[in-house]
Amino acid sequence: MPRAFRKFETGPDAVNAGPLVVFDFEGRSITAAAGLSVAAALLVAGVIEFRSTPASGSKRGPYCMMGACFDCLVEIDARDNQQACMTLIRAGMQVRRMRGAAGVQVAPSVTSAADAPAACVQANDDD
Amino acid sequence: MLQLCNYSQQLMQHNANSTMRSGDGEIAVIGGGLVGMAVAYGLLRTGANVSVFDEDDTGLRASRGNFGLIWVQGKGAQMPNYARWSRRSAALWPEFAAELLEYSGRDVEISQPGGFIYCLNDAEAQASVARLQGLQDALDGDYPFEYLGHNQVREMVPEVGPDVIGATWFPEDGHVNPLYLLHALHVAFKARGGRLINGASVRAVTPHAGGFVVQHGHASTSGFARVVLCAGLGNAGLAPALGLDAPVKPNRGQILVTERLKQRLHFPSVTIRQVGEGAIQIGDSKEDVGFDDRTDAQMLAKLARRAISIYPFLRDVRMVRAWGALRVMSADGHPIYEQSTEFPGAAVATCHSGVTLAAVHALTLAPWLLGQSSPIAMETFSAARFSKI
Amino acid sequence: MRPQRVCKLTMMTDSLEGPEATPGPAIRRTADLVVIGAGPAGLAAAGTAAARGAKVLLLDEQPQVGGQIYRNIASSTAARNTVLGSDYVAGSRLLRALDEPGISYQPGAKVWQLTDQREVYYSVGTRATMCVATEVVIATGALERPMPFAGWTSPGVMTAGAAQIMLKSGLVPEHDIVLAGSGPLLLLLAVQLHRAGVNIRALVDTTPRQNRWRAAPFAPQALLGYDYLLKGLRLQRDFAATGIDHLRHANDLRAVGGDAISALEFSAGGVRRSIECELLLTHVGVVPNVQLTRSIRAEHEWHGVSQSWQPLLDHTGQCSVAGVSVAGDGAGIAGAEAAALAGELCAFGALARIGLLSASQGKRRIAQSSEGLRRLRAGRPFIEALFAPASEFLNPPDSVVICRCEEVTAGQLREHVALGCLGPNQAKAFSRCGMGPCQGRYCGLTVAQVIAAARGVTPQAVGYYRLRPPLKPVTLGELASLDEDDQVSSAAQVL
Q: Measured between CB atoms, which of A81, A106, A115 is closest to B159?
């Protein structure tokens, strides 16, 4: 796959001279510098298409890289519609492209009130 | 398609002096929301000449905040005729949707699979059942609701959470896309020869020389043989000059909308439905806050919390937008339909269920405004009911 | 050598969350001053206020301070500083603000609601917090002006800002690329990428030919801020020295390709041309980010020269909502140095209102900052006019998508205008335009321009979207955690 972005420094200043993180993208193992966003890491790995839209299935990729355009949405660790440019990579992360609308998993069968997550939480008073 | 009637002051005077009958059968509908457009479309299809007056982009526009339900269940507990009126509309909706599709090319995504009112505790269940039972009695048994326990509901709706102890179900309930509906009405209205005059509020409608003068914008006036007020909250101010009464007040409902999801909720409930594009809409509140259509985080938090109790999967779903809309609310929450006896040819039509009633507004109310009879006793909806002690 | 200084990222109090906050009950807190945005304006405001005893909560959605212009400055390297230039490096002085003990700095904070009672709702991870502030300074900066053209939504088309963000992480485009658009930031990016060894096939410059006449009347005023102009001239010279092919007065842009861009087509010098590229970086100016100020219904005014909206502010930087001020590019594009000054000015105004600064001290400080700002802003109208966007990006052809989120085209919007749609809010209702997660950030201005042109009125007359919280999507769980009641509420039952 052609690389879309690369580091421009060499030696100890290079972005990948520090700690590295290994994560998974659709079954492919990607190694990238800690501190990079998922979007940046995918771009370095040559991925520029991150999703297809719910409305028409058109292909989209990162556009603004600053969390404003919402075009870089990917699935991260089974959570849909995460902004790749606003999420830092983490070891063992599972990233997949978003294909259309989010499809939320039904929680494992909750059959009794005892199993249910707390329906209400009390606000804490701080300060 | 913007036809602005611009008359100079002199011309106004001249026209005011001459007959105001600028064409027999010329009807003005004041208000281009769901009620106004449905009424206007209904008038147009009888062969009348119809002009709709609509304001500018910043108007309050209850229609923009409509939830989109075609809802019968529970309505009219204090006024059985309203229950009959709503049921009639639900029954007319399929043919109305088909006609809109034909004339606008726009599919309004109507779906009438039946709907639920979820109950999270015994008190809610008892109240809902009592209400519907009362309606069934008032309608001589012709009111096919059911109460379903948790497991029965779960069979139909696997997503419900354990907090849902049961639900009342009504087979005639459904939903539609309210924005597509408004769009379709505009297109169909225009396609069938209707005229839209917008960009400025109507300041006054006054009787003149056997007809009516509509003052809109800064200096424009237009003359009509008949006029129907469908201006939502604006009706209160416009009605008296026409010998009518429209005591309506704003009542705020807040709605939150999620990101698009794959289709999974096939039945609407009174506060949660999934729209065609996949977003889930969650309502609703009932707040007396005057003309404040903002949202507040506390209320949205309550709506979110109740929604999660009903559908636990919503906990991880994102809200993408929220809004507050002002319902056009009469004192008893039921519509006001009235023809002026003091100034024949003037009428008012207002309600807060512009989607449910769109079909009956177009196919029954509009003909009634032109003198045809209605199968439901319309005097129940007169504003005179408010002055009874 | 990587500098030793690392951005202060940690919990200053127990109530601040780390970047991976676990879900839990909503947190409530208070502060004298909440500063939203940790770019130059926010850092300056926070530091100035804290130095005089205010308890400050500094919120920013990124993991490090710096905003966009000084992104990653705390962890920058010598090589990056050389590529990015001296203006970038100068920003590191602002990091000193974080030394102030009175500042609670919360990175990774997504502000999703601000009320006119100065309640700030934000989330870190999926943990929601509501902070009630005596004063708020909004320092959320600018956005790139939307630049719609055929094919702009294709993968491989990104903004100049996106490329600068990558630069600040030490990354540059791999292959030969093309730059397209107009404005000093585009030239700056070209110079920076060139320094970093990137081959730029061309800079396709869409600056309209007539702009030099439009800009001429503003030139005398610009001389008051002559150092700003000098900087511009230096930039022009540096760009010329790169030897990059500068194709001027280009128009009719089209990004072609299947699943991703493969070439940019355009017309220049009367000839239709095409340049192959796998990455296209576009830019046609920056505009104030008005999301927060719009959401609290602050008053805004339309600026014809810069073709954008700005919040109306008094001389202390306060907008029409009491206790809420706006500092930096969000109040009007003027650059990083002006942003820092404006941050100070707003802080002085807030301090005076809180009572941590006497009225006379406040007045003096504000006057000082204002004087500096006047000088720094003097050159802006000239620059805005000189690089005013070509009309094809303000009023694109029918087939061009103008709402990226909902995929609505300019032609569809024009049909709605013909149906009677008068403004952006009706457009939303008719077409879903503006209803997506970006909340109009990348379509609001275009929608106003298209409707204005179709109706024959000014964008000012057309107006803007009614914005409402949430300003960024927030989970229902986060939202629900803010409910203070013991019981789940019953349905309103409005039937």
A: A106
Give the integer Cα–Cα distance in Å for B8 and A124.
65
Residue C313 in this model has a pLDDT that exceeds 70: yes
pLDDT (tens digit, 9 = 90+) per residue, B172-227? 999 999 989 999 999 999 999 999 998 878 999 999 988 999 998 776 677 899 99
Residue B164: both structure tokens together: 């849902």
- In the stretch 122-141 of chain C, residues with CB closer than 8 A to chain B read 130
Residues B251, C121: C-beta atoms closer than 8 Å: no
Query: Which chains share 3+ C-beta pairs under 8 angstroms with B?
Result: A, C
In this complex, is the C-beta atom of A117 within 8 Å of any C-beta atom belonging to chain B?
A: yes
Task: Provide the pLDDT for residue C18.
Answer: 56
Complex prediction ipTM: 0.91
Residues B228 and B264 in one domain: no
Contact criterion met (CB < 8 Å) for C28 and A126:
yes
**Which pLDDT score, from 0 to 100, does residue A104 have?**
63
Beta bridge partners, C28, equal A125, C130
> How deeply is B254 buried, as exposed, middle or buried, from its count of CB atoms within 10 A (0-12, 13-18, 19+)?
buried
**Mean pLDDT for all residues in chain C:** 91
Tens digit of pLDDT for each residue in B1-42? 333 333 333 333 333 333 333 444 599 999 999 999 999 999
Question: Taking a contact as any Cβ pair under 8 Å apart, which residues of chain C between 3 and 42 contact chain B?
Answer: none
Residue from the list C432, C463, C483 with its beta carbon closest to the beta carbon of B302: C483
Q: What is the C-alpha separation between C154 and C148, in angstroms, rounded? A: 11
Q: By residue range, what is the domain housing residue C75?
A: 27-143+287-357
Query: Which residues have CB under 8 Å from B49's CB, separation 6+?
Result: B23, B25, B26, B27, B193
Structural domain boundaries enclosing B40: 9-65+179-247+332-386
Please give the CATH number for the structural domain made up of A11-99.
3.10.20.440
